[in-house]
Design a protein that fits this description.
Two copies of one chain form a homodimer. Chain A is built from 18 helices and 22 strands. Chain A has 584 residues and is an alpha/beta fold. Chain A folds into four domains: 134 residues, Rossmann fold (3-Layer(aba) Sandwich), CATH 3.40.50; 124 residues, Alpha/Beta hydrolase fold, catalytic domain (Rossmann fold, 3-Layer(aba) Sandwich), CATH 3.40.50.1820; 92 residues, Orthogonal Bundle (Rna Polymerase Sigma Factor, Chain: A); 189 residues, Vaccinia Virus protein VP39 (Rossmann fold, 3-Layer(aba) Sandwich), CATH 3.40.50. In chain A, strand 13, helix 9 and strand 14 form a beta-alpha-beta unit. Chain A is elongated and about 90 Å long. The interface between A and B is large, with 85 and 85 residues.
Chain lengths: 584, 584
């Protein structure tokens, strides 16, 4: 486990907010999506930092299945550290010196907000099974009441992982006018049958416990054995195969009991402990109501997912973690692709982590890197942006910038750290997007305020409709993809014009190297040996021209670059780089 | 789900064996690994086909966690079809016209063999929790008694999936003299903590059921709710995310009940049904004892895995399925690599399936393809083998064969369908192995009786010690790997000599093509366009000679091939293929 701990609650941080306190806001009633009414409704919440004069620096944090309002700082009541404390505080990702951060317990929960263990005013007893069915939409509608009560018109941002991410998506879709940016993490727009199945096993374990008594257990023993089994299963799905290997291996417990069905392995002891301690802090009926809300959540209400985001105006940053098998990457990708199809400004980053679903609570260094810069970009949105550009720019970047009409929409395939995109925004007022497979480069792009997708070019551009851009750029990336033919076809589908730049394999230096020495060329534009080159394809300017002819692609402009100058004559002999503007 | 059904029990086959009957063999006692004694012991078993005169055509099938002895045919008692019927019968993979196939219920089970629900002769009541702790080793020792009773000295083969695969491994290690070949499928040499954790949640669910009564429930209500929860969880792990998507999607059940915690989704209804029907057919204590045996199983008893296989003389065919996340591929790979390190003849094939762990019961067409030919190879082992070779052979194959000393050990990296390996076995009596990434090519190699590993060359050769071979061959594969430098280094580590063959990029046709036309060469030995080539690296004969100098590799022989003849002068100009024998 090296330096990191496996649970966020264990993460200590020197920069705590001291003496936080959970507050309560009660309002008359809430109309539920089922048609029922919940009345009255209390929302437990905590706040950190100060709401500014314009009331435009508010950030809402949404918690996951078993979370609560105490997200940051040290509670003056319980002395516990908040569940995402390393992310929230002075100078942290959600910087409480700049932002007014708050978090509320969901309705249906058991941490201060109205839920099945709350008093039913009609009977004078806890609701139990009579608590109405609630949805993620209802949780968010209750948050809207709190936001109104706090006097906030529009949130600067909303962030949350897992079920918290579902609330973020619901805000984007159902309250688009109230959100400037959204950060859904490790989440899904709707549960898969496998995810529903895991929740159902947990529910069946609870309901199988005779202490559950159809939900009417308040005042007597709680269905602890069943709730504990549900929690144990949950914990398996929150970790990853590899993180369990690292944490437990096949080590036996120190205090193994002689009886044959007791826990022999450390992993069993850990899960049992987690299960038992959960009984103390969570209500079994809340577990049932909330997991049902999660399973039934579908941001698009059964329609095509991108339809849901058509009214969304917020910018979106979607974060996922490689080893999260409970909320696999394809679910985060689907959110980003639906956003893009709906024209929403969406950025996607996959963090390389072995911690599984828990990663969103553990990998706070990486999340900080992304979110801190992202929020800065959102806050300065209407101000003057100065891009971080190294002048003088390279000649091929200069040529590409000159090809682009001012105010165009541009997609840069293989955008690297965003140097070219920044230049296009600065000089051509372009509206940019990029795709890049390198994680560190994506971090730089996010820091630059660019909208980027973390992924491989070879999988295609299904997130974009036909002719979505004025330009697609493939600069120094075509020769590194596995399927250049397919990548070019996709580029020409989503854009009217495509700019292609590549090292010219037909350059005299390559040719001579090969002709006279009979060896694979190593030149200034192709500087690698045959055995360590990242280039998977080698093409010359003539190859590309011939290819375009074969595929009925029109070359509308071609510029050839030698050593710091453009080449007019015999470009296939003398140019190191070929740059083409092509169209269908 | 298309044409295939999701459970083997549903698979109908026209070629059933009619009127099978479960038989019973009882013996006095069994010494258990724990030091306890089980006495008496009854083994339930079924047999199909006839034991031949030499008693050397017997194949034992081992069942998984909840299986039984009725593996094939239609039972004359229950009229049920055996659980792996599509694999066993006349003309099937385990051909009952040729082999004597049998299967026995494990001890600890509840399908006729002695288990916790059997009568304890001391008390006159069912054992319950007093049943002794049993291991996979004990299950196999009981099978050994049955094998002896049947008069079989050495088994032609043992096969089984999941826990059945563990028994296969245990036979290989603990009874090496009794096994000629072994087919472990979808299994592991030891459980990971995640696998232990899933089992422990199932056990906790059973033990949380008040009807369980510390295992003393016989004669009263069974702990059905708990057992059902355990089975529901099991079913999630047996399927895959994608197979659940295909089978259930997010469809609602037809007969949804109005009560809020009932199953709303089809997937929930399916799991509930599976859980409830399991109560009728399985004993909760057997579930506890058997899952504990699985979790504690470690074929190497805590030592390095390859140590375990040092005494194994059986040939091994390991089969795994791509979407099996309960027994992930790396566990099957680890078995194969340990076998190879121990010098065991091991073949590995990954079948591309979406059915998850269940695939071993469903993908019987692919398994038949592999196992039928494999068993044929094992049976004819001491006879005269005629290899399926297309004469005349290509010149480069002829040159390679000529380089190899008779009786050598050879590893062919990128062996394709095994043409060259067969030739080496036929003409040079070589002892061959191959590595190949294409599934269909692997099938052909298995049909040819070759020992092959299904995998990627770029991951290295960790399954082989230094100098394990006389020759490694890299014929037409070096230019297609991602990391040629690493692949060559590994080849030179595991072998004294390495034969490398590749298309010569320095050939006059390539050079001229490039020099005069300025285009990426398309020649007879490099027949692809730049945008559709499978070659990731381009090297000439001179490049390779220079590379060897740089890496201190000695070239002991080089032969150059043009159009159907060898080239003596100016090979880098005139040879289409360069063939080198190199050494450290």
């Amino acid at each position: 486990m090296s330096l990191k701990q496996s649970h966020a609650a264990d993460i200590k941080d020197g920069n705590n907010i001291n003496g936080t306190r959970t507050k309560f806001y009660t309002f008359d009633f809430l109309d539920l999506e089922s048609g029922d009414k919940l009345s009255p409704v209390t929302i437990a919440y905590e706040t950190y930092g100060k709401l500014n004069e314009h009331r435009d620096n508010a950030v809402l944090i949404c918690h996951a299945l078993t979370g609560d309002a105490h997200v940051a700082g040290i509670s003056s009541e319980t002395e516990k550290v908040g569940w995402w404390d390393s992310m929230i505080g002075p100078g942290k990702a959600f910087d409480t010196d700049r932002y007014f951060v708050f978090c509320s317990n969901v309705i249906g929960g058991c941490k201060g907000s109205t839920g099945p263990s709350s008093m039913n005013p009609i009977t004078g007893k806890p609701y139990g099974p009579d608590f109405p069915v609630i949805t993620i939409g209802d949780m968010v509608n209750a948050q809207v009441k709190l936001v109104e009560y706090l006097g906030i018109d529009k949130l600067l941002s909303i962030a949350g992982g897992s079920m918290g991410g579902m609330q973020v998506l619901e805000w984007m879709v159902s309250h688009p006018g109230r959100v400037r940016s959204a950060i859904p993490i490790s989440t899904a727009a709707r549960h898969s049958p496998q995810q529903i199945a895991f929740n159902e096993v947990g529910r069946q374990a609870i309901m199988a416990d005779p202490n559950w008594k159809d939900g009417n257990f308040y005042g007597s023993s709680v269905p602890g054995r069943g709730l504990s089994v549900a929690r144990m299963l949950g914990h398996i799905t929150y970790m990853s195969d590899i993180s369990m290997q690292e944490k437990f291996g096949r080590r036996f417990r120190d205090n193994r009991q002689p009886f044959k069905f007791t826990a022999d392995f450390e992993v069993e002891g850990y899960l049992l402990h987690r299960g038992l301690s959960f009984i103390e802090r969570f209500d079994a009926n809340s577990y049932l109501f909330i997991t049902k809300a999660i399973d039934h959540f579908d941001v698009s209400r059964g329609n095509k997912m991108h339809e849901a985001f058509k009214k969304t105006t917020a910018k979106v940053l979607v974060i996922a973690f490689k080893s999260d098998w409970l909320y696999p990457l394809y679910q985060s990708e689907a959110i980003v692709k639906a956003c893009k199809l709906a024209g929403v400004d969406a950025t996607y980053c996959v963090v390389d982590s072995t911690y599984g679903h828990d990663a969103f609570l553990i990998e706070t260094e990486e999340e900080t890197h992304l979110i801190k810069h992202y929020l800065e970009g959102v806050s300065r949105e209407n101000g003057t942006v100065v891009f971080d550009i190294d002048y003088p720019v390279s000649l091929n970047h200069r040529v590409i910038v000159d090809m682009v009409r001012p105010g165009s929409t541009v997609l840069d395939l293989g955008c690297g750290d965003g140097t070219l995109l920044s230049l296009l925004m600065q000089e051509k007022n372009a509206r940019d997007q990029g795709i890049e497979k390198d994680e560190k480069a994506i971090y730089k792009c996010v820091a630059r305020g660019l909208s980027v997708f973390h992924g491989d070019l070879d999988i295609g551009l299904t997130e974009y409709g036909d002719n979505s851009f004025d330009y697609v750029i493939l600069n120094e990336s075509l020769q590194q993809v596995a399927l250049p033919d397919r990548v070019l076809a996709e580029a020409l589908r989503v854009s009217k014009e495509v700019i292609v730049g590549f090292p010219n394999f037909g350059h005299i230096a390559s040719r001579s190297h090969m002709f006279f020495k009979g060896k694979s060329p190593v030149t200034s534009s192709l500087p690698y040996e045959w055995y360590n080159t990242p280039n998977l394809h080698f093409l010359s300017i003539s190859d590309f021209i011939e290819y375009c002819k074969k595929r009925n692609i029109e070359i509308t402009k071609s510029i050839f670059i030698g050593k710091n100058r453009t080449i007019k004559n015999f470009p296939n002999l003398f140019a190191e780089i070929g740059l083409f503007l092509i169209t269908k």
